[in-house]
Amino acid sequence: MEYSKCANGGWWWCAGMPDVEVGLNDLRRQGREVVGRHDIVPGATEEWIRVENAQFHACVQADQFAKDQILRFKPPDACYIELMRFRVRPPKNRELPLQLKAVWCVTGNKVELRADALVPGFASRRLGQVPCEDVSVRFPIPECWIYLFRVEKHFRYGSVKSAHRRTGKIKGIERFLGAVEPLQESLIEVTSGQAKYEHQHRAIVWRMPRLPKEGQGAYTTHALVCRMALTSYDQVPAELARWATVEFTMPATQVSHTTVRSVSLQNHDNDPPEKYVRYLARHEYTVGIERTSGQAAPAYALAACTPAAPAPAPAPADTPHAPAPPSSDSDSD
C-alpha cells in the first residue's frame, strides 16, 4: 500500500525588477504560441500537460494567466521565490522510481525490521536512465525502544550506527568466514549507505547518496535489517508504525513533465539576457509496513524437555527348523 503526492513549482532568481513573461507547455497553449526567436528555450520534447489547481506568487498576474496561460510577473529584487504551484494527473500505471518493501517481524521477545529497496529501470525518452540521489527512508520507532539505539559518549549521547554487510556471490559465505573469525551481530545492518537513529525524527533513518551506485544496473536490491532483543521489562506496542517515509531527488527530470518553452523580458531586445533552466524532481511518498507475528517456544520449556527414550529393537522371530530323520538300527548306518 502506497500513498504519494506530487507538487510542482518553479523557483526564479533574477537581479533587478524587469517585466518577465514565461510560457509553459500548457495544453491550452498548444498551437497558439506567439514568441520571438530569442525568447525560445530549446527543448527536446513536445509533450503537453494539463495544469490544475494553480497557485501563484503575489507578484504573478493571475488574471492574465487565466486568459492566455502566460506567466507575467515582476520578481522582487534579488529574491529566491516559488513562482507557481500546481497539480497534474499522472497515469495510474506509472512505476515509481524507487520501490520499497518493509516488514515488522515479532517473534516472542525478538523484533526484526527488514526493508528492501529496489530501483527499477527508470527510462526517459529524452534523458535516459537517471539515478535517485539523496535517498532518505524513515522508519518510526516506539518511544519505549529508543534507549536501544542510544549510546553514551564522553560528553553527550549518540546513536548506534549501522554495520555494512556486503553480500558475497558464494552462497553461505558468512558461514565460512565465521570459522576464521566470529561475526558479531550488529543492531542495524545495511548493504548500502548508512542507517542510524535520529532523535529529531523519532525514527531510524536510512540514507544513501545515490541509487543505483556507480557501476550498478537497475533492479539491484539494497537491504536493511534491524534486530532487537527485548528484555522482560520491555513492552511490545499493540500497533507498530504502519508507514515509512521515502524522500529522494532526481536531477534533470520532472515528475509532471513540465517544460519551460519561452522566457522573454520586456524592453531588453538590444541586450538579451542569458537564459538557463535547471530541472530537478523531488519525490516524497509513504509506503505501508507489513507486520508478521510468530510464536516462540518458552525458554524453560526448551531447558526442561528431555529427549524421548529410543524404542527397543524388536526381538528376532524364531525360524522353524526341519525335523531330524529317524535313527536306524541297521549296521549300514
TrEMBL record:
Keyword field: Cytoplasm, Endocytosis, Repeat
UniProt similarity note: Belongs to the Stoned B family.
UniProt biased composition (Pro residues): 309-326
InterPro entries: Adaptor_comp_med_subunit, MHD
BP GO terms, sorted: endocytosis
Statement: the UniProt record of this protein carries the keyword DNA repair: no
Location(s) in or outside the cell: Cytoplasm
Stretch list, region Disordered: 308-333
All copies of domain MHD, residue ranges: 1-290
Repeat as UniProt keyword: yes
An annotated GO cellular component: cytoplasm
Organism per entry: Parnassius apollo
Protein name: (apollo) hypothetical protein
